[in-house]
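Our preliminary data section would be incomplete without showing what the modeling component actually yields. Below, a chain of 275 amino acids is followed by its predicted structure, encoded as tokens that our downstream tools consume directly.
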Amino acid sequence: MKYILTFLFCFNLSYSNNDSIYRFQNSSIFPSYIKDNSFKSSFRDPSKNLIKLSFPIFNLPAISLQYERNIYKKITAGVALSYVSEQEFLILKLYTQQKISNDFSKHQLSNIKTSITSVSPEVKIYFGKDVFKGFYLSPFVRFAKYDVEFPLQFVEDNLDKYYQHVTFSGKFNSFTYGLSIGAQWEIYKNFYLDWLIVGPHFGNSTEHLILESDLSFMQQKGIRKSLDIIQTTIRMTDELPDIEFDYEVNENGGTVTIKNPWAGMRLQLGIGYRF
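Predicted structure:
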């Protein structure tokens, strides 16, 4: 009998303790974040930073490093740093081939080469279910520095059958603004794929290119003739009304100055990590 009473007493005490714990957990004084384990989920909240490495879709020797931070709901602010190693001036080449009919001028302008370093602050507005996901619009500005080489062919006199070459070179900056359209997806545990579908940008620039070389009278004459052909072609091409092409040549070398509207295009694929 003594053992039976002891068992019933212990069972009742255990039940009472369990019941008290249950009622305490569901009482108003027990923190709600412990009841639903939300304190654990708070540590799993999506991070607000995204870093990306992007490459152009076309076969260009370029690379871009980008950083974004979520600043409000599905809006981010960020910056992109990019570098394009020396290549043909692709935009200028495509433009001149379409607009210029003179073969000599077309050939000379398409030979211009450049390397580009740029910084592009931007804001992105996402239209997916969450920030960093879905289609987006991104207004941006772009500050770019260009290192340019302009190889020019010329002949010293009309009887010379062989071209000589000189190279005008220089640095200039451009400021443009534009709007990018793209889409981004999470592909695996905080890793993202970014497709910048199209990102046109526009502005103005002035290029000062310099030739430093001792030139003979006949060399000066041949260089002036080549530059004059290019200048006349640009001035007579109706599709190029806003481009100014001026030059000066003397015994110490020469200068070429080009003033023109500026346009470019961003087309990229990138891989990013959210943290």
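The domain at 46-274 is CATH 2.40.160 (Porin). Residues 1-25, 27-44 have pLDDT under 50 and may be disordered. Preliminary results of this kind motivate Aim 1 of the renewal.
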